[in-house]
Write a structure and sequence with these properties.
mainly alpha, 9 helices, about 60% helix, extended
């Protein structure tokens, strides 16, 4: 919406205005769907008591519970008031170039910072689970196409077209950098790193499979080990006849199990 009022003052390429109008329609439809299918209010006052509630322990609450209202009415009222406010401001301030530039940078800056919450969520969880690579690929591809249009559109028209304002170029570059950072997170984190407990359990399990139990343990799983005579108090390597017979019987049983 800010970009539309920005176009009234800057008069840039109409294709960018058409993109802004299309974005408004899509976002309004998404808001309607989100409000219709939000979780019902919780009787315990938990996280389900407010739609779009993402407040975690230790985080600051939003002023006036902005965009976390329980009723759908405040969302639509805010959009109407914003539209009226921008219209009145444009009537009185449209002759000021600094106001027009401010509209552009604020509107495009909000759009450029949209990937930041996803980046912070991935960093906290050390995981990109639930974030589809197809979405990331479409974002990066869209950024590449926008960069080509922003920097080369006027040049390909022989300089006859309307120049693209720097607000589009700078905010587009920032959003491109954020999307590339998401790509790096997806590369490093993937669906999540294994926890230390699971890693230790896997290491212990793998080590236990390679271990060869002693004569007092279970079944041999590796190569045959040489017989080591059991020591007694009378001296190392000295065994009684009964002990030797018992050890020989145990070796025969284990040889039969290995064969």
């Amino acid at each position: 919406m800010l970009v539309c009022y920005y176009w009234l003052g800057a008069q840039f390429d109409k294709s960018l205005l058409a993109q802004a109008l299309n974005m408004i329609i899509v976002q309004v439809l998404l808001l309607k769907v989100a409000l219709d299918h939000r979780p019902p209010p919780s009787h315990k006052g938990g996280i389900d008591s407010a739609p779009f509630a993402g407040l975690k322990a230790g985080e600051l609450a939003r002023p006036y519970n902005f965009w976390q209202w329980r009723s759908p009415k405040p969302y639509w009222e805010f959009i109407v008031y914003l539209t009226i406010g921008l219209f009145l401001a444009h009537l009185f301030l449209s002759h000021m170039s600094i106001y027009i530039e401010m509209l552009g940078y604020i509107g495009l800056g909000i759009e450029a910072t949209l990937p930041i919450p996803q980046m912070l969520s991935n960093q906290r969880a050390r995981s990109c689970k639930g974030f589809r690579v197809s979405v990331l690929a479409s974002w990066i591809l869209g950024d590449v196409m926008k960069m080509v249009f922003f920097f080369l559109a006027n040049a390909t028209n022989g300089g006859s077209g309307k120049p693209i304002p720097w607000a589009f170029k700078l905010c587009g570059l920032f959003q491109f950098a954020c999307d590339l950072a998401l790509g790096l997170q997806f590369w490093f984190f993937g669906d999540g790193v294994s926890s230390p407990l699971s890693s230790s359990a896997s290491s212990i399990s793998a080590a236990s499979k390679r271990m060869v139990p002693g004569l007092a343990g279970g079944v041999l799983t590796g190569k045959k080990m040489p017989f080591l005579p059991m020591a007694r108090a009378g001296g190392p390597g000295n065994t009684s006849d009964a002990q030797k017979g018992t050890q020989l019987d145990m070796l025969k049983e284990k040889d039969g199990m290995i064969d």
